């Protein structure tokens, strides 16, 4: 009589199961990590942005520090495609400070790649190349070749669900027998739905015969219903920077920035106290926007952007420095040309869910 032989199912085994699945230490660590992740998701935290842009609502949206200019300027931009983005531009300027008379630029962008190159009449070349490895990781590179010097910058940004990490290197080199240049690393983490804390470390070493210099700053950002407060503390330099932004209405937003420096504190000598306070406001109208700011040094500036037609925009910039007894005035005209087919592509891209271009 034949006796049935029990069939034993063979489980797929892996050489690493002892380290992960069958190991009590790693299993405990994995369970703790999973519990921590679940509680972290239950808090409903959002991405707080980066330390570099911790006060972007004030510095970029309200203030006109990066928008002010002087002299006459004309910009002509021609878009050949939207998906992917491809356009060229010609910029002419006269009477402005630190502005070349002519600049030619070309730009290409897709959800994964961004390319930009500029060249002026002095043959100064600058370029940017960004690549999105994943939805969270983006590598950014920029190069500048000019008669006054060269600059190379490499940056990696990782955008998590509730944090941002960045690593940047400026003019890195290993040709001198070691690492030289400027290395920057930052991390910003949301700890509550409204509060985010972070830090930034900067290491600077211009040459191997010079000792490296390191600076660490601590950052905080608090977001209310219609206002945002942020601050940074540079302990080694004895500096404090604080910003406050508030939306007064759908078309009006204001901001204030305070910089305090206490250089020289300690046994090395008496402290040199310096401070700067800047207050600004931005008004958005149907076809125009107006920015104005004033600081405690007696400098008053304003910027008016007016779209007189769908492809034409006129910009007026003015600045008065009462302390230096000087004034600046700038007028610019920008023309954006595009075929009707390109305009139709733009409407389709705006309605799609494609990832943004990694600018």
Automatic annotation (TrEMBL):
Biological-process GO terms, alphabetical: monoatomic ion transport; protein import into mitochondrial matrix
Membrane topology value: Multi-pass membrane protein
GO molecular function, one term: protein transmembrane transporter activity
Domain of life: Eukaryota
GO annotation, cellular component aspect: mitochondrial outer membrane; pore complex
InterPro entries: Porin_dom_sf (IPR023614), Porin_Euk/Tom40 (IPR027246), Tom40 (IPR037930)
Entry keywords, A to Z: Ion transport, Membrane, Mitochondrion, Mitochondrion outer membrane, Porin, Protein transport, Transmembrane, Transmembrane beta strand, Transport
Location of the protein in the cell: Mitochondrion outer membrane
Function: Channel-forming protein essential for import of protein precursors into mitochondria.
Family membership: Belongs to the Tom40 family.
Name used for this protein in its record: Translocase of outer membrane 40 kDa subunit
